[in-house]
Design brief:
By secondary structure, the protein is mainly α. 50% of the residues lie in helices and 11% in strands. The protein has helices at residues 30-44, 59-94, 103-108, 117-128, and strands spanning 20-26, 49-56. It has a two-stranded parallel ribbon with strand order 1-2.
């Protein structure tokens, strides 16, 4: 065989090992939640890895709740399916959000809402009015 050539097997490798129990703490933050979905999906593919406990904050808590609910309904495959369904629906819902990048942002490849008129208005309002001002007291 020529030097530097590696053989790649198409057959899946089965590793015989005892299960490893892990506890997961999932971070928050919208885009981080979607990223975490991908990580969870990959972890759920491993038969030797068992999730013993899961907690999270913000988007991480949503991932944790969806994972546990899906797992209760259908095991690993149920959890993977539930997470995919959840994040696909979040993505579909964002399509019609009033908070969108401007056409110029899209053209220039900018991933910020700093030029979105509605975002700017809401940001200014949040700086001038406290949520406590809106509660009848």
């Amino acid at each position: 065989m020529p030097s530097g050539v590696a053989l790649v097997s198409e057959a899946p490798v089965t590793i015989d090992r005892s299960p490893v129990l892990v506890d997961l703490a999932l971070q928050g933050g919208g885009a981080h939640g979607a990223f975490t979905w991908g990580v969870l999906d990959r972890l759920l593919e491993e038969p030797w890895l068992d999730i013993d406990g899961v907690s999270g904050t913000s988007a991480g808590a949503m991932n944790a709740a969806v994972l546990v609910d899906g797992f209760a309904d259908g095991g690993r495959d149920g959890a993977r399916s539930a997470l995919e369904s959840f994040w696909r629906s979040v993505s579909d819902g964002a399509r019609f959000s009033p908070f969108q990048r401007t056409p110029l942002d899209l053209l220039l490849g900018r991933w910020t809402l700093d030029n979105s008129p509605l975002y700017v208005i809401m940001d200014l309002m949040a700086r001038m009015v406290s949520p406590y001002d809106l509660v009848a007291g």
